[in-house]
Write a structure and sequence with these properties.
Order of helices and strands: HHHHHHHHH
CATH architecture: Orthogonal Bundle
InterPro entries: Homeodomain-like_sf, HTH_TetR, Tet_transcr_reg_TetR-rel_C_sf, TetR_C
Number of strands: 0
Strand content: under 5%
CATH superfamily: Tetracycline Repressor, domain 2
Number of domains: 1
Protein name: TetR family transcriptional regulator
Low-confidence stretches: none
Number of helices: 9
Mean pLDDT: 94
Radius of gyration: 18 Å
GO molecular function, one term: DNA binding
Keywords: DNA-binding, Transcription, Transcription regulation
Organism: Chitinophaga ginsengisoli
Helix content: over 70%
Distance between the termini: 47 Å
CATH topology: Tetracycline Repressor, domain 2
Length: 194
Amino acid sequence: MSKAEKTKEFIVEKTAPIFNKKGFAGTSLSDMTEATGLTKGSIYGNFANKDEVALASFDYNLRKMRSFIYAEEEKVETIKEKLMVRTRLFGKERPLAYPEGGCPLLNTGPEADDTHPALRARVADAIERWKERTISMIEEGIRNKEISPDTDAEQAALTLISMIQGAIFVARTTGKLEYGKRVMESTRKYIESL
């Protein structure tokens, strides 16, 4: 890896948690220089603008979240257990392997939907990939007779994504973790019913 590539990676690693917690609009250049210890010139010598740093930071946070979740899915045997992994992570203290600030989809999507088309597109793509992965799991569950053959895999995947993201949104917005836990319990019951 070249020195420039290492510097870019360093900038992303240091700014990704800030973007994930404060959002695009809330993250300032001074936040980035303070986190990295670099000058404005050093940051913008490696990235054309704040948009590029934000996009790279989102990608970094997404990779970090996926790696953690996929590793957790590998620890369980059945499809239903794999589908429940995200519900079981809710409300637990996040390990270092998980992005600081929580789910980058939820943190980035609402802000970017009207203000940042490139970030919005990244979030939309991530949701589509999550949906396709979930559909594949459900279809595998149908083939191995763990999930009912009359299950609409796409509908079930979209329902699961909405319930999981909704639980996080409601809990974080109201400040009432119990609300999210109750929705996650309903999500687990939904998975069991498939």
